[in-house]
Amino acid sequence: MLQRCFLFAGILLLASCATSEKIAIQPPSLPLEFTQTGSSELPEKWWLLFNDESLNQLIETALLDNFDFQSVKNRLEQARAVARKSGAASFPRLDGSVSTSRSLSQSDDQVKATTDLSSIGIAASYELDLWGRISANTGAAELDLLASQEALNAAAISLSAEVAVTWYRLIDQQRQIELLKQQHQTDKKHLGAVTGRFRAGQITSTDLLQQRQKVEATLGEIALAESKLKLLNHQLALLLGQPSTIISGAQIFPELPTLPMTGIPAELLNQRPDVRQAYFQVQAADQRAAVAVSERFPRISLTANLDFDATELFNNWLTNLAANLLVPIIDGGQRKAEVGRAKAVRSEALNRYKQTVLVALKEVEDALVQETHQQQWLNHLNKQLSFSETVVEQTRQHYIHGEMDFFRFLGAVSSHQKLQRSQLQAMRELIEYRINLYRALAGSWNVKHVRNQI
Fold first, then answer.
1. H/E element holding 130?
2. In this structure, is residue 325 part of a structural domain?
3. What CATH code is carried by the domain that includes residue 379?
4. Across residues 354-363, what is the average pLDDT?
5. Residue 446 CA to chain centroid, in angstroms?
6. Which pLDDT does position 175 carry in this prediction?
7. Is 14 domain-assigned?
8. Per-residue pLDDT tens over the stretch 236-247
């Protein structure tokens, strides 16, 4: 008996050592600070900084009605249910049973007899969590739930950013169409002047055809721009969870808010939901590796059964108390292989976490670089436009006084029109880069839509 106790204690010691292995979750080396930072606080709902009521309403609608986002919420509910289900294994299980039957018998003297039998039973079972298998499995499910919550937060940030980007692209396209139509009217006016000069024999037909070509080119650009506008409306409707939507009325670009404080890279790990999600996934994989290791050791469970015949309630009791020991002996290496697989999954999750950290840092730095250089590009465009306006006016005056050919003037007008369209596009791209920065830094916004807790 004493030898058995020593053997059992030895198995317990070995198992506890085998299941206590934990992985060290260390992020890659981080810089001490970002290359740039601002002075303003970044609110949870970053889009409010644009002071655009239309955008606020669009994002609110998307967060309520977007079907992909609702699916992420459903996955969170699934994870919550799995966590509750896994946690139930830590408690004893009690089941009841009731049965009734009637039998008909006939003796040799043809006497028939009917017998009614009823029984009631209660069964209880409980598995001793000696090696931590049950607690590790429960812990993995709870960590999956935390990861799912972070996935929901990340999805909310991504969705709001997609709506904002699509919205301002739509505004850009509206303004491009307005500008193209204005330019088309200018081109038609110039075509009239060129036609008059052709009829007067002052220019060749080639010059006339060249201006007609420009008029048609502008009409073609209007057609393409209107097509893009419709596609953007379709995209926005999809994000809003609607079959279609039409944005009408004059819209303008917002003023760019001041640059937000970027903080330090180490803080980014605590506020980015995708980084937190990856971290919880590593922890969950670590718990599942512990489950796989514990599967190689014996299981001990206690059972109790109480049954009695209801027809003789006080005379026919049957009670059974038992302890069951399940010991793995030969499985062809299945459990060992599962341990190897679980550890490989854990290593994969750790590498994915580190990659997510690096991607998060890259996204912040990329957005900062893009915004800085885009602002420089826009400043140069504004100066070019100022010079271009002067050139157009001067060439017009030179043409009026017969000092310059008419097509030099048309060339200056064409160049100015291209700069106007480039300016609109540059303004929209600058806003997009700021949205990218907000998306890269956002993380304190926690979507709370489920009131029940574990």
1. none
2. no
3. 1.20.1600.10
4. 94
5. 13
6. 93
7. no
8. 999 999 987 766
Map 376-387 to HEC letters: HHHHHHHHHHHH
> Could you tell me if 288 and 135 are in contact, meaning their C-beta atoms sit under 8 angstroms apart?
no
User: Which alpha helices (DSSP H) does 91-244 contain, by range?
Assistant: 133-199, 205-239
pLDDT band at 6 (very low <50, low <70, confident <90, very high): very low
Q: Are 42 and 441 in contact (CB under 8 A)?
A: yes
Q: What percent of the chain has pLDDT over 90?
A: 44
Number of domains the chain contains: 1
* Region at 201 (left for phi over 0; alpha for psi -120 to 50; beta for the rest): left
3 state DSSP class of 86 = helix
Given its phi and psi angles, is residue 49 left (phi above 0), alpha (psi -120 to 50 degrees) or beta? alpha
Which amino acid is present at 351?
Answer: N
Residues with Cβ within 8 Å of 260's Cβ and at least 6 positions away in sequence, in order, are 38, 40, 41, 42, 437, 438, 441
pTM score, whole prediction = 0.83
Residue 188 lies in a domain: yes
Buried/exposed code over 199-235 (b: 16+ C-beta within 10 A; e: otherwise): eeeebeeebbeebeebbeebeebbeebeebbeebbeb
Q: If we measure between CA atoms, which residue out of 143, 139, 141, 132 comes closest to residue 18? A: 132
Question: What's the length of the chain?
Answer: 454
Residue 248 lies in a domain: yes
Q: Is the pLDDT of residue 5 over 70?
A: no
Residue with tokens 């880069």: 433
- Which run of H or of E encompasses 10? helix 2-19
Match 């002075």 to its residue by tokens. Answer: 39
185, two tokens: 């009217």
Decide: 118 and 310 in contact? Cβ < 8 Å. Answer: yes
Pairing of β 93-106 and β 299-309: unpaired
DSSP string, 225-262: HHHHHHHHHHHHHHHTT-S-----S---PPPPPPPBP-
Tell me which residue range forms the domain holding 46.
26-93+132-297+339-441
Q: Are 53 and 60 in contact (CB under 8 A)?
A: no
